Give the backbone structure.
Amino acid sequence: MTTATSPHAPTQRPDDLPAAIRETKAQLRAQLGGPAGVKAAFREVEAFVEERVKEIEEYNARGESIWPEINYDDIAAGNISEEFKEKVRRYGVLVVRNHFPREQALEFDRELVDYVDVNDFDAQYRGPGDDFFGTLAASRPEIFPIYWSRPQMQARQSERTAKVQAFLNHRWKFESEGVKWFDPDQDSMYPDRIRRRPPGTNSSGLGAHTDSGAVERWLLPAYQKVFQDVFSGNFANYDPWDAAHRTEVNEYEGGSTMCSAFRTFQGWTALSDQQRDQGVLATVPIPEAMAYILLRALQDDVAEDDLCGAAPSRVLAVNEQWHPLLMRGLTNIPDLQAGDSVWWHADIVHAVDPIEDQQGWGNVMYIPAAPMCDKNKAYSKQVAEHFLNGTSPDDFPAEDYEVDWQDRFTTADLNEIGRRGLGLD
Ligand SMILES: [Fe+2]
């Protein structure tokens, strides 16, 4: 068994993207056995996804949540049934109840408010550093570009989070082809922002999409290996939980949608109670849906230099025009309490519902699972520099609000998990 090695550096974007798309399409179509093979491969995936969508619709019709749920205490005690693991495998999403006790999560939220208030964030805020989450008319943003508050760091280095992340990482096949692709028992720290959405908010939400690469999913040689069974008409062999080559993916340089880390699951922790009809997260709980997206773009009603609208430096959009079947599968999280966390597999389609006059707060802290591997270790070294300086991590706009802020989390506050996650051990 060797350890996966991967140079950590963004890939240079092709100079002539339309030409690169045309060439890649020709190559992938040939692999699939020409026009008939391309069509047959898509039909097979479509039939699979259709079955899964029907299952989701049945849940929705019964008013039942399809999201598998587990209590943090059961993860900590290793009290996890095979049935539950199988559900996570099938749907690629889950809710961890009581990841933090509700009172602690509410305290985190209060501390975050104190942190931005004592540092006069409202006066310093210069507007969105990117357009990733769209624009909002509020004087305070919905997304706070802050990274180094005590609550964020305490949550990231908490033993509870480490246990949840290890559980999530272990859902993946991390050894294959004679390579250990990542260490499921250690996470690298991937600092992200927070969202605080007050009662009364009107928000247009966020359209359905996937992260971690758009055109890259077809064009990058590493992704072509990840999806080799999809791109060669062997969908029956395709395993979305096989980590092989995933940690070798380096997305195209530029734009703030780029993620430099490999994440087994994306996720966030609720810092307020949230009702499922109040502009919350929805997903298409089908990990194999990525195969549908990939093969859809190769069909002959899509222009030769187009991948259903995918573009560099943008999230990979899923929409009614190209993916009406997937759109039928969008389903909301269940009602949450502060302290619950929600998670979705790296390929899962997700969206945020629009809302008018939101009832209650909508506060979350983004913390993914990003297990240690060469790729993530390299990024965490850069993260450690930004932590020490109070600057924004490289995957985010260089807004650097916190450089001179008081009450920032310090190196002295790091525990063993925190030091390890930052590569400072
Ligand atoms: Fe996203």
